[in-house]
Amino acid sequence: MVPQTSLLMRSIVLFISFIALSLFPASEAALKKYQFDVVVKNVSRLCHAKPIVTVNGKFPGPTVYVTEGDNVIINVTNNVQYNMSIHWHGLKQFRNGWADGPAYITQCPIQSGQSYAYNFTVTGQRGTLWWHAHILWLRATVYGAIVIMPKNGIFPFPQPYKEAKLVLGEWWNGDVEEAVKKGNKLGLPPATSDAHTINGKPGPLFPCSKKHTYALEVESGQTYLLRIINAALNDELFFTIAGHNMTVVEIDAVYVKPFTTNTLIITPGQTTNVLVTADRSPGRYFIGARAFMDAPIAVDNKTAMAILQYKGVLNTTIPITPKLPASNDTELVTNYNKKLRSLNTAEFPANVPLTVDRKLFYTIGLGQNACPTCLNRTKLTASLNNISFVMPKIGLLQAHYYNIKGVFTTDFPDRPPKAFNYTGVPLTANLRTNVGTRLSRVAFNSTVELVLQDTNLLSVESHPFHLHGFNFFVVGSGVGNFDKTKDPAKFNLVDPPERNTIAVPTGGWAAIRFRADNPGVWFMHCHLELHTMWGLKMAFVVENGKGLNESVISPPADLPRC
């Protein structure tokens, strides 16, 4: 029999422990370390074998699993002939642009035989993001998922039975970098991809691809969380599962008001989390992904397929085929995007800037510049406010931090040089663009409203724009020319979607707002790799603040050198 005094002492100890844990809760933050070895691996798809650049020999690359609040160190060792850098897409990297990753923007690339440790803390974010190479077109094969679990492990929606990642991509039978070089010599786009892929596999509609089909096994009656990432280089994609509805619960690692749909639209750079319940007759159901394009632009129009397979069903069962939208179904895309709303609860508020310190208006355009050695003696270009961005020879963040002169200017214009009917008839004359490494300086903690306006210079087209270092709120969008007197009255300032990548509608505009509370140099660019290469990019220099923790931290000792 236990003495009463022992029971009393044990009770006192338990009570004191409870009080201590309440006042000083144990930190759930941890140090997570990963080793990324960039290596070449021979891979076969569509009856074609070729060497590709990979991380750790995997295609797609390894998933980075972390918990909100974790400190993460990912050591990247470059063992291939190309220079390399890795971008952790969607991570805000507060005060720590050194870990952001875009080559010649926040760092010099990691040269062959060298290493660099990306060291960052995941602060105030949870959900699905991704990582990818941010130099040349190497992200064609160098990419993978980032899964950030909430601190308490609880989602603001029904807990799923299990979860899975579906990373959408593109495959070229030939060497992608060689195709790009050939296109640049001609002044034209390189050949489009030969297939879309789901988790690196094109599916059974392609030759030699029966074994290259991703299958997701599910149990009847259970609900699954699917983390879907568009890692394609140049194509916005429809995504659907035959016979099954999806409940959208998150975009770009931000919770949204749940809604049900049978088709997703997801642009390069974006992520979407959905809940799917295995509530159909046990069988095999195709999962389909194919391009959306509502402009006269060439894309890879082939459909990738994976399989949703109920447990116990034979592999010989013929899968049910989904009904995918027409490739130019603008109405579906518009209606889908209208349904996206931030969750906006006390725990997950939508802190939309209600007042604006700085208003920006950027036109998106294609163009043609002189090229004596190219076909037709011209080359295609792309620009913001008629400026095609020229990449520097050293990292812009280093130049800013060390005040190195002559690397960039801070005179990027707040609006285009000339107003015109942006989305009228196609404009095919006077297509020359200005060139330069011109940045826009932004005051610390100021609020910014940016309207991105598509134009009909050569052709209208949807453009997915990604802003590094921040999330932003998509307060409005529309077709045609933005009307500064009428359109702001329609802005959603209550629960607009919050994300890091936004598709500017074909022949239309999108308005975003963000607070510039992250000092450093932050890249903004079209996430169509073709347009980025042609100059459709710029960067913001966000000044340091005056308070504690309002300045760019010191660079790490192993920061790569150019």
Structural overview:
Its EC number is 1.10.3.2. Residues 1-29 form the signal peptide. One of its GO terms (cellular component) is apoplast. The protein is mainly beta and 562 residues long. The model is unreliable at 1-27 (pLDDT under 50). The strands form seven sheets. A six-stranded mixed sheet has the order 10-9-12-17-14-15, with no helix packed on it. Strands 21-20-25-30-27-28 form a six-stranded mixed sheet. Strands 11-19-18-13-16 form a five-stranded mixed sheet. Helix content is 9%, strand content 37%. It is globular.
**Helix fraction?**
under 10%
- Spatial extent as radius of gyration: 24 Å
Strand content: 35-45%
Going by helix content, strand content and strand pairing, the class is: mainly beta
pLDDT < 50 runs, ≥5 residues: 1-27
Topology:
Blueprint: H1 4-23, E1 31-45, E2 48-55, E3 64-67, E4 71-78, E5 86-89, E6 115-121, E7 127-133, E8 143-149, E9 162-171, H2 176-186, E10 195-198, E11 215-218, E12 223-230, E13 236-241, E14 246-251, E15 254-261, E16 263-266, E17 271-277, E18 284-292, E19 304-310, H3 330-338, E20 358-370, E21 378-384, E22 387-389, H4 396-401, E23 434-436, E24 440-442, E25 447-454, E26 463-467, E27 472-479, E28 498-499, E29 501-504, E30 508-515, E31 520-526, H5 529-534, E32 537-542
Parallel strand pairs: 1-4, 3-8, 9-12, 11-19, 20-25, 22-23, 24-32
Antiparallel strand pairs: 1-2, 4-6, 5-7, 7-8, 9-10, 12-17, 13-16, 13-18, 14-15, 14-17, 18-19, 20-21, 25-30, 26-29, 26-31, 27-28, 27-30, 31-32
